[in-house]
Amino acid sequence: MHQPNNFSRILNQLAAISSASSTPKRARKVASDSEKDGKQLINVVVVGHVDAGKSTLMGHLLYELGYVDQRTIHKYRNEASHAGKASFAYAWVLDDTEQERARGVTMDIARTAFETATKKVVLLDAPGHKDFIPNMITGASQADAAILVINATNGEFETGFENGGQTREHAMLLRSFGISQILVAINKLDTVGWSKQRYDAIVIQIKNFLTRQAGFQSNKCTFVPVSGLDGDNLTAKVGPDHQLNQWYKGPTLLEAIDALKAPKRMAEGPLRIVITDVFKTQTNSISLAGKIESGDVMAGDKVYFMPTAVAATVKYLTSDTESQCDQMCCGEQGQFTLTGVFEPDTISTGHVIVAGGPDTLKPAKRFLVRLVVFDIQIPIMKGTRAELYCHSMCEPCTFIHLRSAINKSDGTVVKTKPRCLSRNMSGMVEIETDHEVAIEPYTVCRALGRITIRRSGNTIAVGIVEQTLA
Ligand SMILES: Nc1nc2c(ncn2[C@@H]2O[C@H](COP(=O)(O)OP(=O)(O)OP(=O)(O)O)[C@@H](O)[C@H]2O)c(=O)[nH]1
């Protein structure tokens, strides 16, 4: 996972390291819903079909909010224009690798933070291209709410929305990760002359899909018309002469983001930090990025990496919304530096940090899962091989036993030991991963109990872990 301003992060971290030794350790605060300076923390993932304009929209928003200075944008404009990609200048705020800029596509999650009137927002800009859906899944697994960006351009909305486009798959994945609030940004309305008819027609189709098929509640879906390229309706209402002013009186994108609700978190639960990136491992220290899904952590705490059970001590914490801190709470993302004895390759993305002893999260290989099958061509059978995604982890797996087919709405058994599970069916199945993994029942930790199953580059099912079996 890359970060838009790695350099300043490293500087912050160095500052944290030099000052930590002289700072006396503070007492542990009562873990709250990670409210910081009176503002609630919310993690928002930005998704949508390839080229919907996600990075441009968010880059322009960050620029208007003052997080990117005029000189930097000017530099991006010049460089992008020399590279024959002038229209990508704002996208470069978030797409910061050479490869992404050369190809004009986001490949990995870009993470950045900004503030609204009442929120501290950690923004995860996800790739739209089908090839990078696994990275999008990692982003969605860390988010509390989502911004779904729709390209309103004639023909392009249709491509993104029809089967094979990423709009539907992204929305279904969001819901399977427990995201219930979705802000739909209808983008590129400048390309259709800010047509109200076009906007209304798109809203009707997306709303129908979100509420009837993807499982979102109508009152949790907000729609906002925008142009990421021109910067219209992002942080300020459009002027009186703008076409949008004739038919839209609703919120700006920023107001709609501010209105998102931070979810109830497992603040009092046992510590669970999902590792999303490992930057540097030395024999006696490791630096990594992660999200606290449950509990809280302080510098000085003794912790364990699961499933390897390697012990370590937390040295420095750098939250995404603050440069340096002594304690980080549930819902926060950031960078962690730990000391211990680390063998090469014993810690990686997808591992989970726990406290209170290695046996507080028992690694397992076999799971009982309640599964919802997507619209698939080839049914799932005993012996089917696939990849299991859970939080930031991906592991090859096998369907060992199909226990029952169940009724989607009330969970009653429709058939025991079915021969297969085909499209849109639901079932209780036993899945075995090739290696032991850090997964828990959904009732113990929601983020560690939600899984996505993919096969040959397509999502075939989503589910929740009912039980770990062995
Ligand atoms: N006319 C117009 N073009 C836009 C708008 N927003 C983005 N674009 C253009 O659409 C193209 C793709 O923009 P990106 O921001 O890279 O799209 P993306 O959704 O982040 O792309 P991926 O992450 O690779 O899926 C660029 O040429 C942008 O300038 C808009 O509001 N209006």
UniProtKB/TrEMBL annotation:
Its main location: cytoplasm. One of its GO terms (molecular function) is GTPase activity. Coiled coil: none annotated. Keywords: Cytoplasm, GTP-binding, Hydrolase, Nucleotide-binding, Phosphoprotein, Protein biosynthesis. Transmembrane segments: none annotated. CDD domains: EF1_alpha, HBS1_C_III. InterPro entries: GTP-eEF1A_C (IPR054696), P-loop_NTPase (IPR027417), T_Tr_GTP-bd_dom (IPR000795), TRAFAC_GTPase_members (IPR050100), Transl_B-barrel_sf (IPR009000), Transl_elong_EF1A/Init_IF2_C (IPR009001). Belongs to the TRAFAC class translation factor GTPase superfamily. Classic translation factor GTPase family. EF-Tu/EF-1A subfamily. This is Tr-type G domain-containing protein. It comes from Diploscapter pachys. The lineage of its organism: Eukaryota, Metazoa, Ecdysozoa, Nematoda, Chromadorea.
